Amino acid sequence: QKEVEQNSGPLSVPEGAIASLNCTYSDRGSQSFFWYRQYSGKSPELIMFIYSNGDKEDGRFTAQLNKASQYVSLLIRDSQPSDSATYLCAVNPSGGYNKLIFGAGTRLAVHP
Amino acid sequence: EAQVTQNPRYLITVTGKKLTVTCSQNMNHEYMSWYRQDPGLGLRQIYYSMNVEVTDKGDVPEGYKVSRKEKRNFPLILESPSPNQTSLYFCASRDRGLQLDFGPGTRLTVT
Q1: What pLDDT digit, counting tens, does each position of A102-111 carry?
Q2: Which residues of chain B have a CB within 8 Å of the CB of A32?
Q3: CB < 8 Å to A99, chain B
């Protein structure tokens, strides 16, 4: 069973700090990686995706991918209380064009 | 507005009473999928459809049926719901990439 693992949290950070969210995956052949944000009672919304090793930046968000170590992370700079949500990591496994495997999510709490 | 809609948003029913959750998208997406979300387990795929009249099982298809008679609609059918199907259900669609657009969710309780 191909798995995606995340620490459930909560990860608590002060406003203005950097929040670091991590995700590991078991399928070494995975090609595409996604971060979704889900507010309580709402549907997931895509924040970023990354395909290549290294960093990808979009505003306050940076996704980092290390395929050799099989982890992907999301950094949120200058964290705001509005960033408080659950962050879902999703992986497209090898041979699985039609699916994404989701982690259970990490709950982030940004306190003023 | 481009969106995925689901109905109903909330449903409480009893064991064995057939129900259908509708899903519709207005983005002309070929791919549609159903997920359930349970605490600690994340989103798990139930069924997906690559196009009209083409459906396939996901990871947790038992107890569910789907149909895809039109491109825009992808209903989820529970022929005989059981309490272990109490969950939060999301319909999603996508274009040729892998980024999913999710509907607002349907919270189902089976007593």
Answers
A1: 999 999 999 9
A2: 98
A3: 33, 45, 48, 58-59
